[in-house]
From TrEMBL:
Record-given protein name: Acyl-CoA dehydrogenase
Keyword Oxidoreductase applies: yes
Ranges where the Acyl-CoA dehydrogenase/oxidase N-terminal domain occurs: 23-73
Gene3D superfamilies, sorted: Acyl-CoA dehydrogenase/oxidase, N-terminal domain, Butyryl-CoA Dehydrogenase, subunit A, domain 3
Keyword Flavoprotein: yes
All copies of domain Acyl-CoA dehydrogenase/oxidase C-terminal, residue ranges: 184-309
Entries under InterPro entries matching the protein: AcylCo_DH-like_C, AcylCo_DH/oxidase_C, AcylCoA_DH/ox_N, AcylCoA_DH/ox_N_sf, AcylCoA_DH/oxidase_NM_dom_sf
Length: 313
């Protein structure tokens, strides 16, 4: 068993034993906030394999913690910008951050003043913005949290009106930040999809109709077998997602659709109870649906992938 597997087991046990733990408590007790932060800044200095292991476990339980935007994307951006003080604050959970990528908003930088709007951004206290070929830190003039269908992924609208910025470096790192974000999201999606499969299998074993478990019926068997193939393939794609832009695009497309399928089929296997408010199945479908738009829909990932695959076209 390697470090990613040990970390996966430790995080799963922690989340099961401390389901209501805050981000600061999680940072202090299991170190997930500083997973990618270099050791000299108080972090664990781990890499993409460990990141994927943690993200998968957070996805299994639909954690609202800002691991994706703060511990992955903001940490990667801050490392590229040499923001050591910010890295230390992110590592111990005393601060959270979010990243605005090029194209995420209508922004303009005039000197050291930022103006414009970002319609949707994952929640975070510190805001790092890629704009005009630079990476800057800026305090929004106004924040508006959304009441979202998927409450496990808090989103906010950001407005800047001649907001002073702190320059952290050039913006050349943004594609790597995006691709690591896609990789972390793919791991979350794979973890959520696997949990949907587990719930469906358990229900198929225990729910009885016509004197036998519904899992003994051929239609349910085929449905679950197809889901198993999707989930295992999504897991493989997520594990490879951090290698490069092509792998990230593959995972962004495949894991998104696999999660949507798994969440939908989980509800179908459960039947009527699957659409009730008290059963968690609907929460996974909501997360899968919102995740499908976070870095663009699957079609956007495939378009980016096509530029690499069909280079001679």
């Amino acid at each position: 068993m390697g470090l990613p597997d040990e970390l996966r087991d430790a995080v799963r046990a922690y989340l099961a034993g401390r389901p209501g733990a805050s981000w600061q408590e999680s940072a202090r007790e299991v170190g997930i906030a500083g997973l990618l932060v270099p050791q000299e800044h108080g972090g664990a200095g781990c890499g993409p394999a460990e990141m994927a292991a943690v993200a998968g476990e957070l996805g299994r339980v639909l954690s609202p913690h800002p691991f994706l935007q703060s511990a992955v994307m903001a940490v990667t951006a801050a490392r590229a910008g040499g923001a050591g003080e910010l890295l230390s604050a992110l590592a111990d959970g005393s601060a959270t951050a979010t990243v605005v990528l090029p194209g995420d908003g209508d922004l303009r930088l005039e000197g050291d003043l930022l103006t414009g709007d970002v319609a949707y951004a994952p929640a975070g206290e510190v805001v790092l913005v890629y704009v005009a070929g630079l990476l800057v830190e800026a305090v929004p003039t106004r924040r508006e949290p959304y009441v979202t269908m998927d409450e496990s992924r808090p989103l906010q609208r950001l407005a800047f009106h001649q907001a002073p910025v702190r320059r952290l470096g050039d913006g050349g790192s943004w594609t790597r930040v995006r691709d690591l974000g896609i990789a972390a999201l793919a791991a979350e999606q794979a973890g959520g999809a696997r949990r949907c499969l587990e719930m469906a299998v358990e229900h198929a074993r225990t729910r009885r109709q016509f004197g036998r478990p519904i899992g003994s019926f051929q239609a349910i068997k085929h449905k679950l077998a197809d889901l198993l193939l999707l989930v295992e393939s999504a897991h493989s794609a997520a594990e490879a997602a951090a290698r490069d832009e092509v792998s990230a695009a593959i995972a962004g497309s495949y894991c998104t659709e696999a999660y949507l399928a798994a969440a939908g089929e989980n509800i179908q296997v459960h039947g009527g109870i699957g659409i009730t408010w008290d059963h968690p199945a609907h929460r996974y479908l909501k997360r899968a649906t919102s995740d499908a738009q976070l870095f663009g829909p699957p079609q956007a990932h495939r378009t980016r992938l096509a530029a690499h695959v069909f280079t001679d076209a």
